[in-house]
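>> received
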Amino acid sequence: PAEYLQAVQASSVLACIFSILGIFVFVAQLFTLSKGKRFTLSGIFQLLACLSIMIAASIYTDRFHISENNGWYGHCFILAWISFAITFISSITYFVLRKKTA
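>> returned
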């Protein structure tokens, strides 16, 4: 399981990097681009962060705690799936905000 743990860690680090890049790109696009073109790239970065979190949590779900009968993964596992949902909602919000012209 050491290879799987490294894959989970790498995906989690990628999610953090994509999320931070999405925030910086959001601030840069807020001041530089016109209203119809804003937030597309930041939405893509948030979607990539969402996918990275989903990959990390899915690998962890599939490969760890296989022999346990009680099925408890811990608080960090729950937080990972909550952060997946929040980054997915954030990426959808960026794509919806792109279409607003007012």
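>> The mean pLDDT is 84.
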